[in-house]
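CHAIN AND CONFORMATION:
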Amino acid sequence: MAALVALGAPPVSKIFATMEEGPIPGESNPGEAWLESHGRSLGHFVAGTWLKPPGRTSLECREAATGRTVAVVPEGDSSDLAVAVAAAAAVAKAWAGLGGPQRGQRLTQ
C-alpha cells in the first residue's frame, strides 16, 4: 500500500474517511471537459500533434453503456499508419533510454 501512496494514490483510510472514491454521475468530469475543449472532434495524435486528414469518413466513438456519441474521429488508413510509425521510429532510441518514471511523465504531460 505504501507504493500506491508513493504514486499519489490516497491511503485507504482517507478514502473511507472522506468517501472520495471517484467521480459521481452528473458531477463535473475532467474527461468530458477535455472533450468539449476539443469540440468532441479529435484526430490522430502523432508526435504531439493532432492530425485531421481531409476527406475522411468520420467515425463516432460511443459510450458503451448508453450509446451516446462522445467524440468523432477520422477513419485512418495506411498513410496515417506510415506517418505514425515513422514518428515512433524517429524517437525509439531515445524512448528506450528512458526509465519507467520518465516515460510516465511524458505520457501524462
